[in-house]
Design goal:
By secondary structure, this protein is of the alpha/beta class. It folds into two domains: 338 residues, Spore Coat Polysaccharide Biosynthesis Protein SpsA, Chain A; 398 residues, no CATH class. 52% of the residues lie in helices and 10% in strands. It contains 36 helices and 19 strands. Strands 1, 2, 3, 4, 5, 6, 7, 10, 11 and 12 form a ten-stranded mixed sheet that branches. Strands 16-15-17-19-18 form a five-stranded mixed sheet, sandwiched between helices. Strands 8-9 form a two-stranded antiparallel sheet. Strand 15 and strand 16 form a beta hairpin. Keywords: Membrane, Transmembrane, Transmembrane helix.
Length: 964
Amino acid sequence: MPKHDGVAVVLVSHDGSSWLPGVLDGLLEQTRPADVVVAVDTGSRDDSAALVRTALEPRVPLLARALPRDTSYPDAVADALATLESAGREPEWIWLLHDDSRPAPGALAALLDAAARHPDADILGPKLREWPSLRRLLEVGVTISGTGRRETGLERGEYDQGQHSQVREVLAVNTAGMLVRRSALVALGGLDPALPVFGNDLDLGWRAAAAGRTTLAVPAAVVFHAEAAHRGLRRTPLTGRHTHFAERRAALFTLLANGRGPTLGLKVVRLVLGTVLRMLGLLCARAVGEALDEAAALVSVLRHPGRIRAARRSRSAAIAAQRGDAGPDRARTRRLLAPWWLPYRHGLDVLGDLLAAATHQAADVAERRRAAAIERGEAPPVARHRDEEDEFADNSLAVRFFTSPVALATALTVIALLVGVRDVLGGVSGGALSPAPDSAGDWWRLHLQAWHPLGFGSQVPAPPYVLPLALGGSVLGPTLLMSALMALSAPLALWGAWRFLRVVGRLATPYGAPRWLLLWGSVAWALVPLTSGAWGGGRWGVVVGAAVLPWLAHAALGFVDPAAERRWRAAWRTGLALSLLVAFVPPAWLLCLVLSVVLVGAAARVVPGLLRDRSLWLPPLAALAVPLVVLAPWWLPSVLEGGAAATLLDVGRWPTAATTGWDLLAGRFGDLGAPAWVGLVLPLLALGALVPPATRVPVVLCWLVAAVTALVAVPLALVSVELPGGTEQQPGLGAVLLVLHGAWLSAALLGALSLRDLAGRPRPMQALLLLGGVVALLAPLVGLVWFAGWGGDDLEQEQGSDVPVYMEQRAADAPENGVLVLRGSVADGLRYTVYRGDGLRVGEDEVAALTPEDEAATEAIAALVTSPDVDAVETLRELGIRYVVQPAPVDGSVATRLDATSGLEQASAPRGTRAWEVAPAPDAFDSEPGWWGWGRWLLLLVQAGAVCVLVVLSLPPLRRSRDD
């Protein structure tokens, strides 16, 4: 007759000699010992089987089995059940253990006690903790999300502090320590052989829940699990080298085999789309192997639909045998599955982690330097300034905010900045800033097309900033986007400057810069584009560039990282940031090129072996090359189509007033900025920063940057660029102004870090320091007050149009309704412009201004105004001109000739203005860009691919764990 023992342990081993001694000790230490042990060894090549026999044969009844090396875990458990049956044993409970799972002494007793208190439970599982750390939680029950993610409900890296103490129902428990009623395991059909290693616990729990059975997690029972297969510590013929593939395949199979039939098609679509997104995320994290495993797992499951159908039929039959016509217990399974929104929260968490890690490289360099200083005894373990101590006295965020002078001052500064930009909310234009287009589609067309319907047609490429504007405008809309750029650039510049200056302070001294000094430097930087008049004059590229530059500088600090891999990652991040800066401030690339050459050359003189290590000088060179690739659709066609001047000019409407050397020194664009003395404070403070010896070396480096920048500014300030149409424009000096004042600001902050070294100096020196501190404090305050009250007035000055309103409306309807505007006289010279669409918008200014003169159109207009010429009218019709307008004052001789020209009919116009309509109206206005159309698409594909690759290279490598 069968012997009804209480508990049979099934221990499956496979090359587990590293962990088996501890597992066997834990099994023998149980306060409630097992009645029989079935030890199944699946072809171990080490002494696993011998270890089991030596430890257990003298102590407990042992049934040993040896199976082939490719035996799956479900087959090993099935063999153990058959062995028990053939031995005449029918235990009530089966306790599954892995060869890498060590049970705590009271684990089995706690499981059996919970089973006695919950007689309806058929499956019980322990609390799993990490082995060998022993404290980190792995699982207290487990479920699965709609995307196949294994959900534990635990925080990342959570430690066991007794917080999970309640017995609760769960979808599944791990087979490492699972206590399952033998009759239930047999009724459910055992573990599914289609899941050889991973996922069979989730599948069994899902089938049990659908059959109306209860699975409990028992935290009082503790098992320590090494997760050897999951962590890749052990390779088997079933897992191979691609553990992620095996895990992902098991998850997909589990979802499709157990999911509801009516939603199976939608689930397949979701899994396909989810796999694509996961692949993109893994590629961004440079986990190429796991990305390929994702695709391979999906293909492996979907290419065998017959296996899915067979698995679903077997599950339906097992449930029908247990529940009859009641069908699956959908309410129970739905309650135990993970919420539908959980995968999306995880996606946001991962994205936030990647972005945070991508922006912390420079800070990591400073932290490692500080740690080294602590080891050398040059700094205490905690270097906190006196004015920060009270901030951490209370854990309440509100209390800390209202008791921190720095936090309050920062908030008031941001409010003042927003007050200064209060007029941009309804749309912003004026000065060098044109109105925004009606839709983001206008920007997309401008970026993608090789030929633009501007003037008489143009093949000059769109400015490089059009792409980021198109991306942002697709979300916010063009008007709101431009308003947001002008309104939020200053707060973003403040934030970026805070991060950059904080790292600079930590690189200069282990103590770092106090928060009040960081606030002063950040506010001073945020005010540079505002008090310079760039904001009020509509020089919006300089305003945006001021927000980008500190983030670029922060990324460039990664070049001093001792690890070559991190220096290369800094190169890609710096290159991307430089591309964005050049898109809005094109001359910045030339300036960065000269600065890089000088700085690398100076470093080579100081460190003679620098040039022999290519990983030291190649990353900065690669960062400089990135904009050449990313911005190729702009600069290369510009050179070929006669628009090379765009690489030297600031963006916006031209012409703009020239900038002198005095303006650069004072940080002003002509007369638009704040009082000159506000801008002169920074260079004076930077001069004073040369006095303290402790920080003189980094201050001299800042002055070197400023000196090189000034040398670059000299030829730019002395020459002028001749634009088509005879207009001359000074090359853009916005990048020069920003880098100059950024270098002076960094020098001033570094000098302020050494003020304590001057405390013992004579009183005249102390008085001078006090005066400098007062001036340094007053300068940003005056600038902030000036901008909040008067800084943005010039933006309200918008250029008017000489075109009648009804012509503007028709011009906006179609590009062939162009309006030719003639100004001047025959005696003094005639000038002409063409009005199309709704006028020139942001992004179109540079294209129109850089387009070479259309000689055929000029000849036709010259013939038209000198004598009635029917052929000239036909030429205008072909060029998409529907109206001719001559604003006041009108040249009578020109008007007389136009009146007499066949094909021109007089049109209504305001008093003092003459207008004519071309009859018949033009049919279309378009042009074929020829071979360059294909060339542009090729450059756009290179640009898109380069950006994707650079983003992947810029992000940190992925480090995965069970709860990542």
